[in-house]
């Protein structure tokens, strides 16, 4: 085994140093001959005779050198190298063709490798945890809101105590109550995002701290001294990666906390919540106190050895129905999925569609290159015939004919892989893209292998038809100068026609896909969000937490001053406060109409917003009826509420919500206004019932955002607002100012990515199909020019000939289009889950694509066909005679 | 068929070269060819050039090493030396050869001698 391996290494080395090795052998042989000559001379032969005898004894040097090269080196590699050198020489002579093919292959490989790297990172690569296939995500299945999806602490305690299905279950506190906090302890105060995790959270995942340790049981008790774990990013950014950070005391929201450890760079919390950037992790105690907070947790469990997901489902189901009786806890309707499904399940369809699209693009590239190579194959028929008659076998000829496309695709693949490296880097850093594991998208060895394989596949796919064509004609060599090989040309043309029809079919599929996605995206953009993101900005302003009355009063005074300053700025149209932004985190409370007994099971829940006066104007939410809150709606005034249309309809079906009384948390509030529905969770889905409570009457909020609407004349609204805010109080650190338009864009980012990429595929496909048609038609005219000349000499008009050529081409194009439409129908069916506001058989899209492709085919046919009219029968006939 | 016979021949030549290098110490190609010719009592007439193909094979296997030096008539020549792996191979091949030779001897012996 080792000897053989060693042999291969030696062979490669010798092959590489071929010239030196050959010179060495020559030296040896010369010495050998001279020694033999000496010997023969000593035996009494003359010089001439000695020389002859010596040469005879040694044997033929030339054969020996060849045999020696084969014995010491890589004979196969020699042949390949020869082919490659030959192909490279041929390609250098056709720089235009080479550049074009390399470019389209590079684009094809670049796109497919980029898509594959995303698929690999999001769907294929194991999650960056220990034995990730045993990790299970557990959430509540009561509805779409966070309150409906989270689980009460008591249920988690039960699961940990009784379930033998899991070797461990842990959880984290849903971010709605996390939000950001003030961190003091570095050189300047910063705003950080904190999330509470149970003690088992990191051990369940198998995450080990890079410095320090995880939380102890004692630290996870209620009222234990505060401790924190730092994220790797925060440690690097704000602690200069200080190795002695463990044990340091920080102040988080005014409370002292000790750093116990730093998490590794490989751990990224955004796996659980795409787009979330968590800086600090704190213990979340499992106690009666946290249980009273209601639904707060998302859970992650590790399946015990030998357990399956269905078994775990059944076990948790049984436990949930047992604890439903008599514990007084919130309902628990468990929904268990693998963690992988939770993280990337929703991305499976869009990524599959993109992967399918890119496969079609590669097919199109193959067809196009193949068609171009066929033309060259015809031109090189004589060369092949010569080689065949000199004794080259068909296998050898095929290998040589395949070398050229493989060399082209290798160059394209190398360029494409560089493009993919750029593309993945761009994607990985695209902060605005909400994609789980986005930062892990890269070109790793697996992706490189994929690039290599697809390069070889494109080379073979594009080369195999021309190679067969080229060599089959070489079998009956036709060496006559200028021999036309009519039947052969006809077969080449037929092959190219089929390829052209295939190109049109592929382009049709891709264009329909691109069209449907683009129209869906246009529909999504046209959605009435219920608020006006343009010219609105938002930033966190709450100065720390504090629930006492005195604290709240101080906060309200601060807010008043803040609003006063901001509203005084010239370009500010309106400024208001809210505790939750649209498309951000949300919570629901129950609400009833006074005087009406709610049916059981149908206690209406509504999204709660605690807002100030002028919030509606600053967010651009229309008030349909009634009035806005005023500064007079404070603790001294009557309790009031504003509801949205859906809640108004739900509680007062007669349509008269105004001045009725709603009961929220046991307090009766008069409805003073009805607001337009707002898309709260995603832009695509209407949220449901909402209610707005005045900040001066409702102290239960955990964050506060300042929302400012500019009049559109100032370009740098954030700076202006920032200045106004710091003028009131410069001490609290400011969070980033966010444009509401960015918030919306971010929510649409996965859809936008799919649309942009697919539109790119479609455009590329259209261009290739166009070139394909054009190429075939002009080839056929060149080839048939003599025939046309004869026919014209016999009286056929150029118009009639043009019509004949066009008819032949367009009939095939129509066939391709028909096949393509069938394929497109299948694709549309598969991707109907990605569509919004258009059906998968959307006639507008299909119609547009048909018209577009038909137009392109006609254009690309008649443009070169005009050349027929320039054919001069006299010239073509004379050329043919020579 | 021709192929297989040349395989056997190749193997024989390799074995002879190894044996010779083991006995005589470092030799250049001419020396080796001369020695094999003498031992073979000129019965084994091979093109002397083939010895270089044989040496290339042995080098690849790591059974011999080569070093440039000067021949007795002051020319550049490569001197080949058997390695430890080469000696191991030699002893294994020798055993094998003796066994095969014994068997072949018995098989080919005239019938009445048995």
Characterise the protein shown here.
The complex is a heterodimer of chains A (882) and B (114). By secondary structure, chain A is α+β, with helices and mostly antiparallel strands. Helix content of chain A is 54%, strand content 14%. Chain A has 26 helices and 23 strands. In chain A, the strands form 4 sheets. In chain A, strands 4-5-10-7-9-8 form a 6-stranded mixed β-barrel. Chain A has a 6-stranded mixed beta barrel with strand order 15-16-21-18-20-19. In chain A, strands 1, 2, 3, 11 and 12 form a 5-stranded antiparallel β-sheet that branches. Chain A starts with a helix and ends with a helix. The mean pLDDT of chain A is 84. Chain B has 114 residues and is an alpha+beta fold. Helices cover 62% and strands 14% of the residues of chain B. Chain B contains 4 helices and 3 strands. Chain B has helices spanning 2-24, 29-39, 50-61, 84-108; strands at 27-28, 64-70, 76-82. In chain B, strands 1-3-2 form a 3-stranded antiparallel β-sheet. In chain B, a hairpin with a 5-residue loop joins strand 2 (64-70) and strand 3 (76-82). Chain B is globular and about 55 Å long.
Provide the spatial order of strands within the biggest beta sheet of chain B.
1-3-2
Shape summary of chain B? globular
Helix content of chain A: 40-55%
Residue share in helix of chain B: 55-70%
Q: Give the termini separation of chain A.
A: 65 Å
Please describe the biggest sheet of chain B, giving its number of strands, its sense, and whether it closes into a barrel.
3 strands, antiparallel
Number of strands of chain B: 3
Find the structural class of chain B using helix and strand composition.
Answer: alpha+beta
N-to-C span of chain B: 31 Å
Give the strand order of the largest sheet of chain A, numbering strands 1, 2, ... along the chain: 4-5-10-7-9-8
Biggest sheet features of chain A = 6 strands, mixed, barrel
Radius of gyration of chain B (CA) equals 16 Å
Secondary-structure element pattern of chain B, one letter each: HEHHEEH
Strand content of chain B: 5-15%
């Amino acid at each position: 085994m080792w000897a053989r391996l060693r042999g291969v290494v030696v062979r490669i080395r010798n092959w590489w140093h071929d010239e030196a090795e050959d010179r060495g052998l020559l030296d040896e042989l010369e010495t050998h001959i001279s020694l033999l000559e000496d010997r023969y001379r000593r035996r009494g032969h003359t010089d001439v005779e000695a020389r002859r005898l010596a040469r005879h004894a040694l044997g033929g040097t030339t054969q020996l050198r060849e045999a020696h090269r084969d014995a010491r080196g890589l004979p196969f590699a020699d042949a390949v190298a020869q082919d490659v050198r030959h192909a490279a020489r041929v390609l250098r002579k056709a720089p235009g063709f080479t550049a074009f093919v390399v470019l389209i292959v590079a684009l094809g490989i670049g796109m497919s490798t980029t898509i594959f790297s995303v698929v690999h990172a999001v769907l294929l690569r194991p999650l960056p945890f220990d034995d990730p296939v045993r990790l299970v995500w557990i959430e509540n299945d009561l509805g779409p809101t966070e309150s409906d999806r989270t689980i009460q602490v008591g249920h988690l305690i039960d699961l940990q105590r009784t379930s033998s299905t899991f070797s461990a279950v842990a959880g984290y506190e849903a971010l709605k109550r996390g939000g950001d906090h003030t961190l003091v302890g570095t050189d300047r105060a910063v705003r950080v995002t904190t999330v509470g995790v149970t003690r088992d959270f990191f051990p369940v995942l198998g995450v080990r701290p890079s410095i320090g340790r995880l939380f102890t049981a004692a630290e996870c008790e209620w009222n234990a001294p505060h401790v924190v774990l730092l994220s790797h990013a925060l440690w690097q950014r704000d602690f200069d990666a200080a190795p002695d950070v463990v044990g340091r005391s920080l102040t988080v929201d005014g409370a002292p906390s000790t750093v116990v450890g730093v998490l590794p760079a490989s751990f990224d919390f955004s796996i659980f919540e795409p787009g979330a950037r968590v800086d600090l992790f704190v213990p979340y105690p499992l106690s009666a106190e946290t249980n009273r907070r209601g639904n707060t947790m998302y859970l992650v469990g590790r399946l015990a050895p030998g357990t399956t997901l269905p078994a775990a489902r059944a076990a948790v189901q049984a436990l949930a129905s047992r604890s439903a009786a008599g514990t007084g806890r919130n309902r628990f309707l468990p929904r268990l999925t693998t963690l992988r499904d939770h993280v990337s399940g929703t991305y499976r369809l869009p990524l599959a569609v993109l992967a399918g699209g890119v496969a079609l693009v590669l097919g199109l590239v193959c067809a196009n290159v193949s068609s171009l190579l066929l033309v060259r194959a015809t031109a090189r028929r004589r060369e092949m015939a010569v080689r065949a008659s000199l004794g080259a076998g068909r296998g050898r000829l095929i290998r040589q004919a395949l070398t050229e496309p493989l060399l082209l695709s290798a160059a394209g693949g190398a360029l494409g892989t560089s493009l993919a490296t750029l593309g993945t880097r761009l994607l990985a850093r695209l902060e605005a893209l909400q994609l789980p594991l986005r930062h892990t998208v890269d070109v790793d060895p697996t992706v490189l292998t994929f690039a290599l394989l697809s390069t070889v596949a494109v080379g073979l796919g594009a080369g195999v038809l021309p190679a067969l064509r080229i060599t089959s004609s070489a079998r009956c060599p036709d060496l006559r100068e200028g021999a036309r090989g009519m039947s052969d040309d006809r077969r080449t043309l037929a092959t190219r026609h089929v390829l052209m029809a295939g190109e049109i079919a592929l382009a049709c599929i891709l264009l329909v896909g691109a069209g449907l996605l683009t129209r869906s995206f246009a529909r999504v953009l046209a959605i009435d969000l219920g608020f006006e993101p343009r010219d609105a900005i938002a930033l966190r302003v709450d100065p720390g937490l504090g629930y006492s009355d005195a604290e709240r009063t101080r906060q309200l005074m601060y807010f008043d001053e803040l609003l006063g300053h901001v509203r005084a700025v010239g370009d500010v149209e309106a400024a208001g406060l809210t505790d939750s932004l649209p498309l951000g985190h949300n919570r629901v409370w129950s609400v009833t109409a006074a005087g009406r007994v709610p049916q059981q099971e149908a206690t209406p829940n509504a999204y709660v917003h605690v807002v100030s006066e002028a919030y509606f104007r600053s967010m651009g939410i229309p008030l349909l009826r009634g009035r806005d809150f005023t500064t007079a709606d404070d603790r001294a005034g009557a309790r009031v509420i504003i509801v949205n249309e859906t809640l108004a309809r739900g509680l007062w079906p007669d349509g008269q919500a105004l001045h009725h009384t709603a009961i929220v948390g046991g307090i009766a509030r008069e409805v003073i206004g009805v607001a337009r529905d707002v898309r709260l969770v995603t832009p695509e889905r209407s949220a449901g019932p909402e209610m707005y409570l005045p900040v001066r009457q409702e102290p239960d909020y955990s964050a506060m955002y300042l929302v400012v609407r500019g009049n559109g004349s100032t370009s740098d609204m954030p700076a202006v607002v920032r200045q106004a805010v710091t003028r009131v109080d410069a001490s609290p650190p400011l969070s980033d100012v966010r444009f509401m338009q960015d918030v919306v864009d971010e929510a649409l980012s996965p859809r936008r990515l799919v649309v942009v990429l697919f539109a790119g595929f479609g455009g590329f496909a259209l261009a290739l199909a166009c070139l394909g048609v054009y190429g075939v038609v002009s080839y056929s005219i060149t080839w048939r020019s003599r025939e046309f000349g004869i026919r014209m000499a016999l009286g056929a008009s150029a118009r009639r000939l043009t019509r004949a050529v066009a008819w032949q081409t367009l009939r095939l194009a129509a066939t391709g289009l028909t096949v393509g439409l069938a394929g497109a129908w299948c694709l549309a069916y598969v991707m109907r889950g990605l569509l919004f506001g258009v059906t998968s058989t959307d006639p507008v899209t299909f119609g547009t694509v048909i018209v577009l492709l038909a137009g392109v085919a006609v254009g690309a046919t008649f443009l070169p066909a005009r050349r027929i009219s320039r054919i001069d029968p006299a010239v073509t006939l004379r050329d043919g005679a020579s | 068929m021709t192929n297989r016979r040349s395989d056997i021949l190749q193997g024989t030549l390799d074995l002879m070269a190894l044996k010779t290098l083991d006995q005589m110490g470092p030799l250049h190609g001419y020396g080796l060819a001369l020695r094999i010719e003498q031992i073979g009592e000129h019965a084994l007439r091979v093109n002397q050039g083939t010895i270089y193909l044989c040496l290339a094979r042995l080098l690849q296997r790591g059974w011999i090493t080569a070093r440039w030096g000067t021949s007795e008539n002051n020319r550049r020549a490569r001197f080949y030396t058997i390695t430890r792996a080469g000696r191991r191979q030699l002893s294994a091949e020798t055993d094998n050869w003796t066994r095969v030779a014994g068997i072949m001897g018995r098989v080919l012996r005239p019938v009445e001698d048995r």
